[in-house]
Design brief:
six-stranded antiparallel sheet; seven-stranded antiparallel sheet; 6 helices; 342 residues; 19% helix; single chain; alpha+beta; Naphthalene 1,2-dioxygenase Alpha Subunit, Chain A, domain 1; binds fe (ii) ion; 2 domains; Rieske Iron-sulfur Protein; binds FE2/S2 (inorganic) cluster; 29% strand
Amino acid sequence: MKSANLENGQLLTEVNHKAATAPSDNVLHHYWHAVARSQDVTDKPLAVKLLDHPVVLWRSDTGVVAFHDLCVHRGTPLSLGWTENGNIVCAYHGWRYGADGMCKHIPSIPAERGIPAKARAIVYHSAEKYGLIWVCLKDPVADIPAFPQEIHDPSYRWEAYSSHGRWKANAARMIENLLDFSHFTWVHPGILGDPSNAACESSEITAVPGGFQYEIEQPVNRLKANSASIQRFTVILPLTLFIERRQPDGPEKQTNIYCCTPMSDKETRFFRLSGRNYRDALSDEELNKKHQTIFEQDRVIVEAQRPEELPLDLAEELHLRGPDTAGLEYRRALRELGVKWG
Ligand code: FES
Ligand SMILES: [Fe+2]
């Protein structure tokens, strides 16, 4: 009986599939998340983590593929393997999987034995867009966020200013930090905020497809001397933010796109695409250094916030109308979406 089970692959694959089953359902499983830069997915499989799921990214003949990073045979991460002729090969016993997840070849048995039906990988939705690889763990309920059209504007330079990295913080805490303008004065004095001008005016929040938007006038970080810039914040739920900074009296514009991807509830992989259509007085190197300084100042605060997960019960924490209106709207919208941590 035991050998019969092994022969048709039932017993072993049953057990291993259970081990590969996703953790409890979560609405974030139904949204697209950026998990890697296109250039980082080569002919070598790449391991990433999304919402506590180990995921392997690899390139088949038809494009980028995302699998649960586990071989059904003996639980080996497929990311330890390699790609060959449009398939991914497991490093342990050489099982070969196609882009559809089906195992196509088991080297240790004669071909006439056939392949057990359950010898397959769990396939996630994957796509390549805007120079990023996107994964959705379950059936998507929304499209990949549409980036501002500047991403295609040849007068913008993007490569010089974009960055990516990892914070030991909740992804929504990170987005809320980025959309919170009342901290500029205190966390980034002299760079993004003017300590003699800490009062924040209320900004009107308007709905946009998939999220909301508001504008502020920023006193310090001017594109031109002696004139304030306008910043427009656009939140695309659940975890994408665009910050477009423009000169009220000139053509200079800068656009920052933030995709904050939850590796887990407490760890975030972020991708920041930053472009501008003008030459700054500072060199590219100086500008990137300034950005790193700002990001480090934020990281120290956000990684230390408790609870780690952004509270979505509006009765938690204390909110100020005006300075915290955008944060409050963000929390309310995530709660309405059904986001839950843990
Ligand atoms: S563990 Fe993958 S082929 Fe054996
Ligand atoms: Fe900040």
